[in-house]
C-alpha cells in the first residue's frame, strides 16, 4: 500500500516526515546499540532487509485478478521487533522508490509511517498478546500479519482522507466521508490480500520450524519448549 | 522484476555526470512538482525529464513507457476517487449506480488532474534518477552528507543481498512452476510459503557466512568507498539553469490557471 509520488499536497507530506523521523532515529539508535553489543547482527539485519525487499517484489496471485505483493514487514516485526523493522522498512522503501518508482521520495514519510511503523507495531503487539494468551503459534502469526496489513491499509486511507477530505475543507464529517470511500475502494484488494499474506507467513514459519527451528530460539522469537511442542516431540 | 533498473543505469552515458547535479535536478523537480497549483508545470517537468532520460540517458523508449504504465494505473485508482468524491462546484457528469449517486464536479476534476500530473512528474523524476544513476554512486553521496554510519552500512549490504536473493528466488520459483507449483490457488499459496521460508533459511546462513568472511578480512564496521571526482561541465550547468529558470517561470505564470 504505497502512496505515489506527488500524491500528497504540501502540508501533509512534510507533516508525515515530521512524524516518522523521530521513530526512525530511535530505531537507528536501538540498532546501533545492538550492533555495538553484538557485531555479528549487522550482516543478519542486512539479509533480513534484502529478504523484505525480495519478498515484497514477488507477486502474489490475487483473487480479483490483479497482482499484488506481500509486504513482509509483519514477519520482520515478529522476528526483530518494531523499532528495527522501521529502519529496515525505510531502507526498503527508499530502494523501491528509486529502483521501481514504487512509492516516492516526498511521500516517503507517509509510507514509512504506515508500512514501516504502524503496521509492524500492530503486528508485534498482536503477536505478543497472542503468545501470552497461549494461542496456537501459527494462528498467532496469521493474525499478526493479517492485522498488521490491515493497519497499514487503514493508515494509508486515513492519510489520503486527511489530504483530500470531502468538501475540500478538513472537517470531521468530510474526513470521515472521504475515509470511508478510500477505505472502501482499497478494501476490495486489501482484505483478501491480508488474509493471504497471513496464510503465507504462517506457512513460512511452519517450514522454518520444521527445517531450522534453532534460528527462532536463538532470536527469542519462540521459546524452546514451544518449538518442541510444535514439532510434536515434547521432551 | 527480472530487469532491475540499475542495469540500465550502469550503461547510461549520463552515469558519468556529476551525481550531485543529478540529485539537485531530481529534488528540484520533485519539490516544484508537488507544490505546483496547476497541472501545466508538472506536465512540463515530466516531459523534460522523460526527454532527458530517453534522449540523453539512452534509456530504451519501449521499456520507459512500460515502466511508466505500471504506476500510472495505480495512481489512476486514487485519482478517480478524488474526482468523484471531492469538490463542491458545478456538476459536470453524474449518474446513478446501484442506488448511489456518483457525480464529478468541476473543482473535483481539477484537483484530480492536478494530483495525476504531480504524480506523473514525480515518477518521471524518479525514473530519471533510477535509469541514469547506479546505486553505488548514491552511496558516496550519502556518505558525504553524514548520514549515520550504520544506516549506510546496512543499506549497502542490503543492496548487495537484494541481487543474491532475487536470483535465488527466481530460480526457486522457476523450479516450482515447472513442477506445477502455481497451477491453482491453493498450491500457489503453499508454494509461496515454501519459497519464502527457504529464502529465509538460506539468507540466514548466507548472513553467517558473510560475517565470517568479512571478519577474516579485518572488517571493523566501516567499508571505504572509492569516490570518483566528476566536475560539472559548463554545458551541463547552462542546460540545467535554463531548465530551472523555465520551470520557475512556468510555475509563476500558470499558478492561477485552471483548465476545467
Topology at a glance:
The complex is a heterodimer of chains A (235) and B (260).
Chain A: H1 10-37, H2 41-57, E1 60-61, E2 67-68, H3 73-80, H4 82-100, H5 108-132, H6 137-163, H7 172-218, H8 224-231
Antiparallel strand pairs in A: 1-2
Helix pairs in contact in A: 1-4, 1-5, 2-4, 3-4, 3-5, 3-6, 4-5, 5-6, 6-7, 7-8
Chain B: H1 5-11, H2 19-35, H3 40-56, H4 61-85, E1 91-97, E2 100-105, H5 106-132, H6 135-144, H7 149-178, H8 185-215, H9 234-253
Antiparallel strand pairs in B: 1-2
Helix pairs in contact in B: 1-5, 2-5, 3-5, 3-9, 4-5, 6-7, 7-8
InterPro entries (chain A): CbiM, CbiM/NikMN
Subunit structure (chain A): Forms an energy-coupling factor (ECF) transporter complex composed of an ATP-binding protein (A component, CbiO), a transmembrane protein (T component, CbiQ) and 2 possible substrate-capture proteins (S components, CbiM and CbiN) of unknown stoichimetry.
Keywords (chain A): Cell membrane, Cobalamin biosynthesis, Cobalt, Cobalt transport, Ion transport, Membrane, Transmembrane, Transmembrane helix, Transport
Q: Tell me about the largest β-sheet of chain A.
A: 2 strands, antiparallel
Number of strands of chain B: 2
* Contiguous helical run count of chain B: 9
Oligomer: heterodimer
CATH class of chain A: Mainly Alpha
**Alpha-carbon distance between the two ends of chain A:** 44 Å
How much of the sequence lies in strands of chain B comes to: 5-15%
The ordered H/E elements of chain B are: HHHHEEHHHHH
Percentage of residues in strands of chain A: under 5%
Number of strands of chain A: 2
Radius of gyration from the alpha-carbon trace of chain A, in angstroms: 18 Å
CATH architecture of chain A: Orthogonal Bundle
Sheet with most strands of chain B? 2 strands, antiparallel
* Helix coverage percent of chain B: over 70%
Name the chain pair with the biggest interface and residue counts per chain: A-B, 75 and 79 residues
Overall outline of chain A: globular
Averaging pLDDT over every residue of chain A, what do you get?
A: 80
Mean pLDDT of chain B: 80
What low-confidence regions of chain B span 5 or more consecutive residues with pLDDT below 50? none
Terminal-residue CA separation of chain B: 38 Å
**What is the H-and-E element order of chain A?**
HHEEHHHHHH
Amino acid at each position: 500500500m504505497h502512496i505515489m509520488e506527488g500524491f500528497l499536497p504540501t502540508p501533509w507530506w512534510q507533516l508525515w516526515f515530521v512524524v516518522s523521523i523521530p521513530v526512525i532515529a530511535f530505531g537507528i539508535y536501538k540498532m546501533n546499540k545492538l550492533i555495538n553489543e553484538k557485531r555479528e547482527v549487522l550482516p543478519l539485519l542486512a539479509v533480513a532487509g534484502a529478504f523484505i525487499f525480495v519478498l515484497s517484489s514477488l507477486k502474489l496471485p490475487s483473487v480479483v485478478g490483479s497482482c499484488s505483493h506481500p509486504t513482509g514487514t509483519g514477519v520482520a516485526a515478529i522476528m526483530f521487533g518494531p523499532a528495527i523493522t522501521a529502519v529496515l522498512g525505510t531502507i526498503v522503501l527508499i530502494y523501491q522508490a528509486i529502483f521501481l518508482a514504487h512509492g516516492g521520495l516526498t511521500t516517503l514519510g507517509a509510507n514509512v509511517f504506515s508500512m514501516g511503523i504502524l503496521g509492524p507495531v500492530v503486528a508485534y503487539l498482536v503477536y505478543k498478546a497472542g503468545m501470552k494468551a497461549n494461542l496456537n503459534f501459527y494462528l498467532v502469526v496469521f493474525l499478526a500479519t493479517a492485522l498488521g496489513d490491515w493497519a497499514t491499509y487503514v493508515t494509508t486511507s486515513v492519510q489520503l482522507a486527511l489530504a483530500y477530505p470531502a468538501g475540500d475543507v478538513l472537517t470531521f464529517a468530510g474526513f470521515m466521508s472521504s475515509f470511508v470511500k478510500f477505505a472502501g475502494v482499497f478494501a476490495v484488494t486489501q482484505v483478501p490480500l491480508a488474509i493471504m499474506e497471513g496464510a503465507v507467513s504462517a506457512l513460512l514459519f511452519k517450514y522454518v520450524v520444521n527445517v531450522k527451528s534453532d534460528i527462532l530460539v536463538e532470536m527469542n522469537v519462540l521459546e524452546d519448549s514451544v518449538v518442541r511442542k510444535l514439532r510434536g516431540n515434547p521432551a | 522484476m527480472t530487469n532491475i533498473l540499475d542495469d540500465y543505469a550502469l550503461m547510461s552515458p549520463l552515469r558519468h555526470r556529476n551525481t550531485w547535479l543529478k540529485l539537485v535536478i531530481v529534488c528540484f523537480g520533485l519539490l516544484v512538482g508537488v507544490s505546483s497549483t496547476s497541472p501545466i508545470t508538472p506536465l512540463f517537468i515530466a516531459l523534460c525529464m522523460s526527454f532527458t532520460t530517453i534522449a540523453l540517458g539512452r534509456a530504451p523508449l519501449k521499456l520507459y513507457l512500460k515502466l511508466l504504465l505500471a504506476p500510472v494505473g495505480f495512481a489512476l485508482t486514487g485519482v478517480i476517487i478524488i474526482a468523484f468524491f471531492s469538490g463542491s462546484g458545478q456538476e459536470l457528469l453524474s449518474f446513478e449506480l446501484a442506488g448511489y449517486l456518483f457525480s464529478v464536479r468541476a473543482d473535483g476534476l481539477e484537483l484530480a488532474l492536478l494530483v495525476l500530473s504531480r504524480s506523473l512528474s514525480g515518477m518521471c523524476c524518479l525514473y530519471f534518477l533510477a535509469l541514469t544513476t547506479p546505486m553505488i554512486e548514491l552511496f558516496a553521496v550519502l556518505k558525504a552528507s553524514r548520514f549515520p554510519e550504520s544506516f549506510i552500512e546496512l543499506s549497502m549490504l542490503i543492496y548487495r543481498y537484494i541481487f543474491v536473493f532475487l536470483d535465488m528466488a527466481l530460480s526457486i520459483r522457476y523450479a516450482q512452476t515447472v513442477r506445477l507449483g502455481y497451477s491453482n490457488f491453493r498450491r500457489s499459496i503453499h508454494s509461496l510459503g515454501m519459497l519464502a521460508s527457504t529464502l529465509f533459511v538460506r539468507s540466514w546462513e548466507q548472513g553467517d557466512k558473510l560475517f565470517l568472511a568479512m571478519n577474516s578480512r579485518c572488517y571493523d564496521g566501516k567499508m571505504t568507498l572509492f569516490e570518483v571526482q566528476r566536475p560539472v561541465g559548463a554545458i551541463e550547468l547552462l542546460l540545467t539553469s535554463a531548465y530551472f529558470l523555465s520551470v520557475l517561470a512556468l510555475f509563476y505564470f500558470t499558478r492561477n490557471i485552471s483548465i476545467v
